[in-house]
Amino acid sequence: MLLCPVSSLYGQINDANSLNEHKRDNYSFIVGGHYYGNSSNKTGIPANTIVANLGVFNDSEIDFQMVVGDVFLDIKNDYKRYTETFFSRLQKPLFIAVGNHDVSDKFFEDNIGPTCFSFNYGGDVHIVLNTEKDDGSIIDEQLTVLRKGCSSEANNIFIYSHRPIWFEENPEMKDIFKNNSRSKFGVNYQSEVEPILKLIPKNRNVYWFSGSLGGSAPASFFYHSEDNIHFIQTAIRGLKRDAVLKVSSIKGKIKFSTISLTDEELDELESFNLEFWRSAHPKEDFNPRLIKMYVLNAVFHRFFWYGFMSAMVIVLAFLYWKRRKRNYKKLNG
After folding, report:
1. Same domain membership, residue 313 and residue 222
2. What is the DSSP string of 178-211?
3. What is the share, in percent, of the chain residues with pLDDT greater than 70?
């Protein structure tokens, strides 16, 4: 396993050594994202659709679970309760490609594990990237990890990141993911990342999974392919549409199975394509009874008071300056 510089590992999270390393022709794993659900979830534990479906993640057919970011709503507040109610109940290794809600200084690295690494399993290579670094651009150690993984002789190459940096410079996907996490100043996907992927022989497939669909997403999945490169997104929102993806590698061939977390009937992954995302979809009904809860959650969150105190300091500084200016005019007028 190739790692970027890290401090310590936590149990079975982001620790490829927790995988059984014997060679396997067939294996399966779960890919999901945005496990905290939506911003109204201040419980400190994952969304109810995740907690209620531990059997999906602990299924005997599953070798491991990959989460493409935003596991937590607020990692510093939620880490302890997640450990007690979710991590400790998982029977299979868990890997996380961190999202913007999962990073706070070095908290993730210090308490959970690395944010950039790769590992080989079942003849395939899996590459986990941290797109919260460097405004989403893949540079330095991360570019080295990516380049080495893509130059291997693996049957399939799986890449995981929270931000779908592959869509930002693609005019065909413009405005597909509204209000999702993206760079402020542009990424180096077309200039440095895509050329690496283009060097991979066409008879070997690349699957890039991301987990930032945006709050108004009509589904839990997105799928688009260009030659041998397949772009996939998956994320839940604490809604009826919540779902995760089962990926099966069978003698080097990849099969996808969409799994509803609310017993809904789902189409195949490939049906959630650009045409689907460009078409109109009805929104789930809003429950006005939740307004009071949203307001209380916002007011009692520490970020609200950080903003409030910052605003007060600015206002007081402005009033002080204005008073000084008025007194100066009186003295020199």
Report:
1. no
2. TT----SS--SIIIIIHHHHHTS-TTSEEEEEE-
3. 87
